[in-house]
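Long-time lurker, first post.

We've been arguing in lab meeting about whether zinc ion would sit comfortably in this protein at all. Half the group thinks yes, half thinks no, and nobody has a model to point at. So I'm putting the question to the forum: if I give you the sequence and the SMILES, can you give me back a predicted structure of the complex? Inputs are below. Any interpretation is welcome too.
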Amino acid sequence: MMKSTLVVLMLITVLLVSSCAPKGVPSEAKRDDFGCWPPSCSLIPDQQGKKLCEDWKAGKQVQWFDCSGFSDFPNCVKLCELEKKNNLQADAGSDWTPFSQSGSESQINNGPDSTSYASQLKEVPPFCVNDNEDHRAQLIYARPQDASDRYDLLAPKIRKWAGQGNGIVNAEAKRFDVNANLKMACEGGKLSVLNVVLTTVTTKRADLYLLTTELRSKGFKEDKVKYMVWYDGIVTNPDGSPGTKAEAWLDNWPTTSFGQPQDDRPTDENLFNQGADFSFVYQQFDGGYAQIAMLHEYSHTMGVVQHSSPHHTGDGHCKDSKPVHLGGQDVNCAFNAAHPSYKPELEVYGDACNGFGFRYDCGNDDYFNPKPEPGSYLATHWNVGLPMNKFIQFDNIEKK
Ligand SMILES: [Zn+2]
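Top reply:
Settle the argument with this. Predicted structure of the protein with zinc ion, as tokens:
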């Protein structure tokens, strides 16, 4: 029953496509999605994206929006462009945005999952720093001494996640015709991932302070380096229960808490523009959203999000997009429920992105804008998207 409905729908689609397609284009009985969709549409965090996927898979005619919204997913750009070319109805909804049909918010919690939608993100090679002279991120695989060594398994994944995180930054800058890449330590032509065994922590007990203290004692304290650590274990609360899944430590920060007054000066002497900082992503992210978490925490060490910015939360994040785990797009938008200033009623998000895929600053008005409007907030405050940031390599920017 279901099957025959599908066939009829597909036939209609094929008929519509072939009637408007130029002669000579073969119509296919089975449509190729070019690898755009995940195995199950339910893996797509964005509600409209999920519906688009379901409708498409059901053989329905779908209304594609701007194909460039898929820039993080090249296979979907291909599919979108082909369908728009072949689909008479495609351009009818030019003012259609994926969040315009409000009312149903995504309830999906993808969690750590190797088939997460984020795992499809495009990898873009970071900018390789091969010496000790330049500013850079250093990838580290760290484990407690009582855990087995998974370096050989994890190091290639850590490189991939770093490349996927860089892909998000790179895609954001491309919107401004700027080529931006995270500067990262390389060795032998690939990203360097150090293998570090920690002796002051165990699989049962670890915390940010112990991790940072031991790493610094091992010499990871160069002021030109921000250490991007993937820790093969969990951190624990004082009562032994599992702690947070990812966090950052700002080594040179003048106050003890990230929520304190920050340095938003638009100068290369900005305190965020140096090491030695640490961004940690813990074992829970193995295989799912590690790339998002790595970029998120690393961004904190670069000064994202300032408490003077238009859509800040007061705890180092932005609120003009839902967080990624709630189906939003901005990798740095969220409220930190563990922060002293947190109240559940504060947790209200805007919808500045209205698109698809992951973004590095929805609206480009809070932390990343390679070409800020003169006089705007990001033209007059610390802006991670400008060449004054020593930890991102910029090209194709007009020199002053
Ligand atoms: Zn955060």
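For your lab meeting: The first strand starts at residue 127 and ends at 129. Residues 296, 300, 316-317, 334 surround zinc ion (CB under 6 Å). Whichever side wins, do check it experimentally.
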